[in-house]
Specification:
About 10% of the residues lie in helices and about 50% in strands. It is elongated. The strands form three sheets. Strands 1, 2, 5, 8, 9, 10 and 13 form a seven-stranded antiparallel β-sheet that branches. The protein has a four-stranded antiparallel β-sheet with strand order 4-3-6-7, with no helix packed on it. A four-stranded antiparallel β-sheet has the order 12-11-14-15, with no helix packed on it. The protein is mainly beta and about 240 residues long. Pfam families: Gmad2 (PF10648). Keywords: Signal.
């Protein structure tokens, strides 16, 4: 009798202390409706635009966290110097301790055709908005609100291939939407989904959960829900 009572207390303790573990076991139906769900490593994405007056339209960029280079690359404006050309540049920063920092710097420059040295360098904060900074080679720099991108893939066996999803930080839903798998039930269909979360809405310390589910044709309620951990913060 005592052993049974102690066992019950232990089980109860597990339910309270590890709700996510118990919840994962409750989802015994997961292989019937969603399976092989994979989440790619996230990236922080910035969209930069402005005007450049550089040799043959070629410019270079570098993102720095203090003295450390986080990412670098190059792009081409719509016209080469001495004309001003428009440019749009997507910068993706892989998951790292630096990626979510708010004090990153963006360097824009061109390389000297004579000796390859960096010339006409413009340094601006890597944050959303327009900057009044300019030099002989760069002006009208504007940065869109950054977002964190996740790519999710898997298989679903749902009515007419239609599934729904929602991403929660444990308190609020940050993203909600729906998609269509390559085939409808009773067949397994493949699906791919890109999840964009504004960087400013990312939790400082927490877990992002993606919920995959169907909507009941009978009463509009969620059915066949499957949960997967999308990410955990802070990034290391």
């Amino acid at each position: 009798m005592k052993k049974w009572f102690l066992g019950l207390l232990t089980l109860t303790g597990l339910v309270v202390a590890f709700p996510t573990l118990i919840n994962a076991n409750v989802l015994a139906e997961e292989d019937q409706f969603f399976r092989h769900v994979k989440v790619s490593k996230p990236q922080v994405e910035y969209q930069i635009e402005g005007k450049a007056r550089v040799f043959e339209g070629t410019y270079h960029y570098r993102v720095k966290d203090g003295k450390e280079t986080v990412v670098q690359g190059w792009g081409t404006a719509s016209a080469g110097g001495p004309e001003w050309g428009d440019f749009k540049q997507t910068i993706q920063i892989p998951k790292s301790k630096s990626a979510m920092k708010k004090n990153l710097k963006l360097e824009l420059f061109e390389e000297s055709a004579k000796d390859g040295s960096e010339v006409n360098k413009l340094v601006v904060p890597l944050k959303a908005g327009s900057t009044g900074k300019k030099n002989a080679a760069f002006k009208n720099i504007r940065i869109d609100e950054p977002k964190v991108k996740y790519r999710v893939s898997g298989e679903a066996r749902v009515y007419e291939g239609t599934y729904h999803f929602a991403v929660s930080d444990g308190h609020d839903y940050l993203v909600e939407g729906w998609g269509t798998a390559s085939m409808g039930a009773p067949e397994w269909g493949k699906f791919k989904e890109t999840i964009d979360i504004p960087l400013k809405e990312m939790p400082v310390n927490g877990t992002l959960i993606m919920e995959l589910f169907e909507i009941s044709m009978k009463d509009g309620q969620r059915v066949h829900q499957y949960e997967v951990v999308l990410d955990q913060t802070p990034w290391k």
